């Protein structure tokens, strides 16, 4: 038996479906194989929160019309959680979201973004220009790497940074912990930065503390897993079974709650 409402997997920054590359790896197909209606968001890879929230709204409206439903479930990774929250709070979609699950979303900002913004502004602008150019090739409609980085920086005012959502929406969050740099050759580099800054446990990109939102459930699996591995990127075969089982269990729990 499938979930009552369709599921939309909302990708984070940089990752997006493009030709043979999938932002959530095999996860969408695995959930579909269990009879669930599943889509991956078609938002920009380097779009601002506002831009991506509007794109996500358009997609949700299309999905609801296609399947004749009035709600969807959102499972959002990284910045996708911020896009989803903005959608709910500012775009009049609070009655169309049954549940929101965020996975390593930087609700309190990212020290990586804060560090990058300390670089000379002209250098940041040059980097952002090239990132925008590349992502236009990858079919981003409105890439804005510079503003996106600003939106992801840490905030001194936690209460303003951690947005609220409608009380009728079931909201939960998960984190992940990369225990050793050698466990992921990509995320291992930013993990060293977290350790140097004494930012506590993280997945290489987002700290456990910053991941907390709504009903916090802790790490998604009991293993060393990075920000990228959460969505089946750079995931080795020894962890695949655990990660896939997590998503199946997560969706099964949503189904049992009537979502």
Question: Can you walk me through this structure?
Answer:
The protein is of the alpha/beta class and 259 residues long. The chain has ten helices and six strands. Strands 2-1-3-4-5-6 form a six-stranded parallel beta sheet, sandwiched between helices. Strand 1, helix 1 and strand 2 form a beta-alpha-beta unit. The longest helix is centred in the last third of the chain and has 20 residues. It starts with 6 loop residues before the first strand and ends with a helix.
Number of helices: 10
**Strand tally, please?**
6
Question: Given the C-alpha coordinates, what overall shape results?
Answer: globular
What portion of residues belong to β-strands?
5-15%
* Order of adjacent strands in the largest pleated sheet: 2-1-3-4-5-6
Average pLDDT works out at 90
| Unreliable stretches | none
Helix content: 40-55%
């Amino acid at each position: 038996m499938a979930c009552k409402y369709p599921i939309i997997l909302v990708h984070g920054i940089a990752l997006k479906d493009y030709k043979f590359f999938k932002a959530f790896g095999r996860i969408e197909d695995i959930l579909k194989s269990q009879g669930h209606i599943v889509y991956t968001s078609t938002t920009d890879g380097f779009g601002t929160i506002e831009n991506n929230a509007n794109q996500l709204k358009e997609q949700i409206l299309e999905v609801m019309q296609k399947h004749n439903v009035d709600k969807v479930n959102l499972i959002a990774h990284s910045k996708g959680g911020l896009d989803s929250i903005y959608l709910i709070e500012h775009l009049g979609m609070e009655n169309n979201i049954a549940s929101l699950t965020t996975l390593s979303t930087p609700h309190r900002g990212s020290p990586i973004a804060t560090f990058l913004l300390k670089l000379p502004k002209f250098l940041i602008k040059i980097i952002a220009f090239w990132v925008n150019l590349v992502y236009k090739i990858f079919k981003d409609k409105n890439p804005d790497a510079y503003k996106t980085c600003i939106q992801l920086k840490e905030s001194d005012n936690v209460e303003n940074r951690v947005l609220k959502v409608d009380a009728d929406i079931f909201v939960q969050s998960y984190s992940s912990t990369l225990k050793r740099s050698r466990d992921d050759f990509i995320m291992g580099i930013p993990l060293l930065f977290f350790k140097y800054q004494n930012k506590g446990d993280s997945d290489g990109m987002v700290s456990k503390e910053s991941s907390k939102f709504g009903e916090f459930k802790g790490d998604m699996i009991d293993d060393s897993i990075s920000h990228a591995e959460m969505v089946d990127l750079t995931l080795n075969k020894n962890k695949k079974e655990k990660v896939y089982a997590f998503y199946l269990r997560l969706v099964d729990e949503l189904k049992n709650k009537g979502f």
